[in-house]
Design a protein that fits this description.
- This protein is 47% helix and 11% strand.
- The protein has 72 residues and is mainly α.
- The protein has one domain: HAD superfamily/HAD-like (Rossmann fold), CATH 3.40.50.
- The chain is globular and about 35 Å long.
């Protein structure tokens, strides 16, 4: 999703709604990861699960809590 093409920018909730529409996904099917807590909070306000990324190992553990794993 490129803000220059859709004319919305984070933290505008419409960019998250448009991403859900394009992906044809419900908010419960999505995990949003960002290093800015405000952006994660906006996504969570729409029912999207979120992780605030601070460092790799913490994000990896948070993803595992959602049933996802990273392999190197």
């Amino acid at each position: 999703m490129s803000s220059s093409f859709v004319h919305f920018r984070k933290p505008d909730a419409d960019i998250y709604r448009m991403a859900l529409d394009i992906a044809q996904a419900s908010p419960k099917q999505v995990l949003y990861i960002d290093d800015r807590s405000l952006f994660v909070e906006v996504a969570e306000g729409l029912g999207i699960r979120g992780i605030v990324h601070k460092e790799y190992n913490a994000t990896q553990k948070a993803m595992e809590a959602f049933g996802l794993s990273l392999t190197r």
